[in-house]
Amino acid sequence: MQIAIVTGASSGIGKEFVRQLSYCYPWLDEIWVIARREENLKQLQKRIDAKLRILPLDLRKDSSFFTIQKLLKTEKPHVKVLVNAAGFGKIGKVSECTTNTIQGMITLNCTALTKMTTLCLPYCGKRSHVIQIASAAAFVPQPGLAVYAATKSYVLSLSRALRREVKQEGITVTTVCPGPVDTEFFQKAGGSLSFAKKVCMAKADQVVHKAILDAAGGKELSVYGIPMNAVYVLCRIIPHRVLLAVMNLIL
Ligand SMILES: NC(=O)C1=CN([C@@H]2O[C@H](COP(=O)(O)OP(=O)(O)OC[C@H]3O[C@@H](n4cnc5c(N)ncnc54)[C@H](OP(=O)(O)O)[C@@H]3O)[C@@H](O)[C@H]2O)C=CC1
Ligand SMILES: CC(=O)[C@H](N)C(=O)O
């Protein structure tokens, strides 16, 4: 059985991946979709042809990983595509975040992504693609979204190293680093959206379209749009203390 696995499939970027994978990879036997909102996953099945295996799981819970591990052991699928999209962020100073929120971001954005990746890798092989959803927030620290940005730096660092480790096996790892994307993310994140972010807001379908192409091309990074590619270059050439001072003014 050849499958794709998508976490965070109940909305936004993850949901868009499921939709686009279903027609870019029509030969997949199943797409395993993971998120807590089962109803959203059921609704998604009504709108696409691919067979979905609905896994309503909370990835902050250890028990969810036992379920996934058991399923992988039973089905022994070839995981052709793994998309780790589940994640969230909270806007506000670190001192204003509760320890629960901070722990939640680290657990979901870092620990769960790492666990999913390590659980699935033994089932990946030649021409399998691991697609990790990081963020442009991974490029430079982001006051006001500090813990979230730090979790995304972790994802980027982990995924770039992993890419080298699994290259020999023919597995590619592509890290997707979008700027602001129009999804439920910012409703859940609270706080207000800066003018700069509103201007740079991208559509999920375009970010995902590029990510799927970049993964198929074996690229290391997928950065959608001119503004975020400019941010990427600036973050590499301008000292971060200067960037942080500018960000303080515009974000
Ligand atoms: N929107 C943006 O501007 C950007 C987003 N990103 C990243 O993209 C990814 C997707 O976000 P986006 O689509 O925008 O936001 P959404 O809020 O629309 O999607 C988040 C997804 O994560 C799932 N999720 C949240 N908590 C859990 C949990 N405990 N267990 C399992 N699944 C969970 C949600 O499903 P459910 O609630 O049903 O569990 C949902 O499917 C995230 O990693 C985010 O950091 C990166 C850059 C920019
Ligand atoms: C939410 C995001 O990840 C986005 N790149 C941002 O920094 O706003």
From TrEMBL:
Enzyme class name: oxidoreductase
MF annotations from Gene Ontology: 3-hydroxypropionate dehydrogenase (NADP+) activity
Which SUPFAM superfamilies has this protein been placed in? Answer: NAD(P)-binding Rossmann-fold domains (SSF51735)
**Keyword Isomerase in annotation:** no
Q: Which PROSITE patterns match?
A: ADH_SHORT
EC number(s) of the enzyme?
A: 1.1.1.298, 1.1.1.381
Which InterPro entries does this chain map to? Answer: NAD(P)-bd_dom_sf, Sc_DH/Rdtase_CS, SDR_fam
Keyword vocabulary terms for this entry: Oxidoreductase
List the catalysed reactions: 3-hydroxypropanoate + NADP(+) = 3-oxopropanoate + NADPH + H(+); L-allo-threonine + NADP(+) = aminoacetone + CO2 + NADPH
Question: Which family is this protein grouped under?
Answer: Belongs to the short-chain dehydrogenases/reductases (SDR) family.
Main role?
Answer: NADP-dependent dehydrogenase with broad substrate specificity acting on 3-hydroxy acids. Catalyzes the NADP-dependent oxidation of L-allo-threonine to L-2-amino-3-keto-butyrate, which is spontaneously decarboxylated into aminoacetone. Also acts on D-threonine, L-serine, D-serine, D-3-hydroxyisobutyrate, L-3-hydroxyisobutyrate, D-glycerate and L-glycerate. Able to catalyze the reduction of the malonic semialdehyde to 3-hydroxypropionic acid.
Protein name per its UniProtKB record: NADP-dependent 3-hydroxy acid dehydrogenase YdfG
